[in-house]
Amino acid sequence: MQLIRKTSRWAAAVACGMLAAAALPGAAARAADSAPPVPDRYRLQKLDWQSCSGGELECAPMAVPRDWYHPGAGPGLTVEVSRHRAADPSKRRGVLMMAAGGPGASGLKRPATLTGLSPKLAAAYDVVSFDQRGVGASTNVVCSDQDKVDALFTSGDLRDRSPRAIDATFDRARDFVADCERASGGLLPYLTTDQAVHDMDLYRSLLGVDKVSYYGPSYATVLGAYYATEFPRRVDRVVLDSTVDFTRGWESFLAGQPMSFQRRFEQDFLPWLAKNDAAYHQGRTPAEAEASYERLRAALRDRPLDLDGTTVTPNQLDVAATNAMYTADGGFQTLAAQLVLLEDPGAASADARRTAAQQLRHSMGANFFADFTAVTCGETPWKRDRRYWVNESAQATRVNPLAGARELTFAAICSNWPRTRAPQIEVTGKGLPPVLMLNSTHDPAAYYEGALRAHRALAGSRLITVPDGDHGQFQNGNACADAHVEDYLLDGALPAQDTGCPGVPLPGPAARG
Length: 513
Prior knowledge:
Number of helices: 19
Number of strands: 12
């Protein structure tokens, strides 16, 4: 039960199992032909493209049905879409659609990043993306304000297993769910991956193309897998990067994340921190470095630190640590510098204190978390037994404390969420071209064990395994991974079988000024 915001270029959060028989038509994956007719006001609309994102992209609002299974009923929603057009249309091979992770992250500006880092793809494709329904410039879902979201993750010490602390966690969770039901305007049941992929197919049709290729990292791998499954005749080439396990549901997937965050922390970060003891002075062995972390955490538990107006608690330290695990280059250095500063803030410069205070202020944004919970709670039939979650989260806290301490917060929210009517989508790979997948062995969010299950479920897929721990392999400094993705999207070239790429070396210590 762990969402963490992605801090690298292809942010996700978070991060990110579910699948129940549905009350909606067709519990298994349905072909596009089985959907009700799309009203003309959606099907025949013209996208009004305007310059956006500093002129690098064009953006437009797209009207979509609130409920694709009753598309003519009620008011529609707005999904904001973007595109980066190929420089020479005569040489364009097609449309490459992207999406963002999370769920809850914005995808609108991502084509500018991808095309800036890959001129070959920029020349070959119109690269398009969107803000998923509920997110960013699209129709937003609203739950609690930022203060209430902060309180979910920073109040007290989430490792505290006392009855009083557990009661407080459930009270805050029920209050958050009540806010969502009250403030969302009835939108919650329609913020599902299944509804979103129908938005994606409308976008494809309004672009005037029969097929799209696709690249998606983190939660966007679920969007891509669902889209290809529900609209198999509409996909050309599909790349899934750091795949969220779509075979078992959000409840199962998120329950696995404390293990993978702890593994990344213990097997990658702590040895790196010990190796760089001359720079950070946290201990010359991983055990000594871990003891330093726990001493700092205990000090923040006993006396939270006021850092330039940000009250730093032990929970915020854990959030900083889990955020840092996504990408070693930058993430490890940032966390190490925070540990040094929090031990002796008076020795740091005013600029360093202000920067750290800003980094530590919010565990996650209120808008992001509203959409994240709407998707992960709303398309999975979570267990509603309080005793089960108290026991389960106690075990997670003991064994994998870094991220396991927050498990009860997520479970308390989702176990109180309105019951789901989202359909089951079974991803099999049937009728699809081979799909290219990339995953690292120590990915903290899209853990490798789950990616292997998704790979086995997606018949005909090829998996590129990278022996490091970054979340997101494409355009993340791995030339081998970049080459595999570009060769496939440009020329259709795939390895004959699963293969690997060397991992990116861990960084050195950050320069100290």
